[in-house]
Write a structure and sequence with these properties.
The structure holds 2 protein chains of 2 kinds.
Chain A (H helix, E strand, L loop, with lengths): L1 E5 L10 E6 L5 E7 L6 H4 L8 H5 L6
Antiparallel strand pairs in A: 1-2, 2-3
Chain B lengths: L2 E7 L5 H7 L4 H8 E5 L8 H5 L6 E7 L2 E3 H13 E7 H6 L11 H11 L14 E4 L2 E4 L3 E6 L9 E3 L6 H12 L17 H4 L45 H4 L17 H12 L5 H8 L5 H5 L15
Classes of the chains: A alpha+beta, B alpha/beta.
Bound molecules: iron/sulfur cluster (SF4) (2 copies).
């Protein structure tokens, strides 16, 4: 079994990698898109004063 | 000879990268100055390309984003070995930035909220990311999600810092000029920013500040010419380095401190707290406390960008 890693995937906002497994005939057995990142905005905006939300969630993606 | 540079992001939003792109036509000058060998947002280089470089091959790396997981740390260390000069770009790399607010919680709190409890997530099997997983014969790995968000300088030696969230584009351009012209100041310096407090450059009218009540922005309309702090709106100007061009102030909104502290200030948030306490009109400590108690969300107000680098650092585990 052969393994191809595309790491990182590029020209997008964020982190990602693709891992492809080839079988003995060289055909694709399976391919996986993995997202190796998490920051946790869902948690740390909880309870934030509502008027401050725009200036925090704009840091989710700056692209 | 052209410089060899790398641009990378850890726990970031891409805004620092866009700030580089926002140098507009100056980008062509940057391209004349430097060959870029890594820049995930814009160019297709792989980690294997970086691993294949000789140590010290790069003249400079601009690293935005904090260190949130083991991959961020691994690549930070890899790039440190490959570069002569490591530059922390932006508030996240410098101080943890907004993603550093995750230090108010534990790793488990965050994983639970994001993957198990979030209203928009259907995850009946209760799957959370694992560092290693097997699907038949296929073995997959993910980085370890740390309990604590770290700044770049908490994991590798950092030579210079360009502050801001994001840094002002022209400040990035001028900082790159310092490398090109071989004019970098002493190691450890902040580049691409001022050396005074934001208040010293702010054009709003200032007189003797005396606050008796803290206002939230929806509670009254701020006067467009007077200092925010004098009007009772919390503004981090006294505790924040200048260099941003007063972007927020000019847009009619108080500073939240993204340019970080001045030299020799250990904790920006605590510096702001003491600046605030000193302008409160009160007879004694009890009165000061009564006013300070009206700050709705002190931690995320005073340490909006700097929690990971502060002396508080994180919630007790
Ligand atoms: S410093 Fe601000 S603009 Fe830069 S990556 Fe962090 S959140 Fe984005
Ligand atoms: S506190 Fe804010 S509004 Fe007042 S002078 Fe300082 S930066 Fe300007």
């Amino acid at each position: 079994m052969k393994r191809i890693a595309i790491d990182p995937i590029t020209r997008l906002e964020g982190h990602g990698k693709i891992t492809i497994f080839l079988n003995d005939e060289g055909a694709v057995d399976n391919a996986y898109l993995q997202i190796p990142e998490l920051r946790g905005f869902e948690k740390f905006v909880e309870g934030l004063p509502v008027e401050e939300i725009p200036r925090v969630v704009t840091r989710i993606c700056g692209v | 000879m052209k410089l060899n540079i790398g641009i990378y992001w850890g726990a970031a939003c891409g805004g620092c990268d866009v700030a580089i792109l926002d140098t507009h036509e100056k980008l062509l000058e940057i391209a004349d100055m430097a060959d870029i060998h890594l820049w995930p947002i814009a160019m297709d280089f792989k980690y294997s390309d970086v691993r294949a470089m000789k140590d010290g091959y790069l003249d400079a790396v601009l690293f935005s984003g904090g260190v949130r997981n083991s991959e961020n740390e691994e690549i930070a260390k890899l790039l440190r070995a490959k570069t002569k000069t490591m530059i922390a770009l932006g508030a996240c790399a410098q101080m943890g930035g907004v993603p550093g607010l995750a230090n108010m919680y534990t790793r488990e709190d965050i994983l639970k909220r994001v993957y198990l409890e979030s209203e928009s997530t259907a995850n009946t099997e209760g799957i959370v990311p694992l560092e290693g997983a097997k699907n038949g014969a296929h073995e997959l790995e993910l980085p370890r999600f740390y309990n604590t968000v770290k700044t770049l300088s908490q994991v590798v030696d950092v030579d210079y810092t360009i502050p801001g969230c994001p840094p002002a584009s022209m400040q990035i351009y001028s900082a790159l000029g310092l490398i090109w012209d071989n004019m970098l100041p002493k190691k450890g310096s902040i580049i691409g920013a001022g050396d005074r407090a934001l208040c010293d450059e702010c054009s709003r009218k200032k007189s003797e500040k005396t606050i008796t009540k803290i206002f939230r922005t929806h509670e009254k309309l701020p006067d467009a010419e007077t200092c925010f702090l004098e009007q009772g709106f919390i503004c981090l100007g006294p505790a924040t380095r200048s260099g941003c061009g007063s972007r927020c102030i000019k847009s009619g909104t108080p500073c939240r401190g993204c340019y970080g502290p001045l030299d020799d200030v250990a904790d920006q948030g605590i510096k702001m707290l003491s600046a605030l306490a000193s302008v409160i009109e009160a007879k004694d400590e009890k009165d000061i406390d009564a006013v300070l108690d009206t700050v709705v969300d002190p931690l995320r107000t005073f340490h909006r960008f700097s929690l990971a680098s502060s002396i508080l650092r994180r919630k007790k585990a």
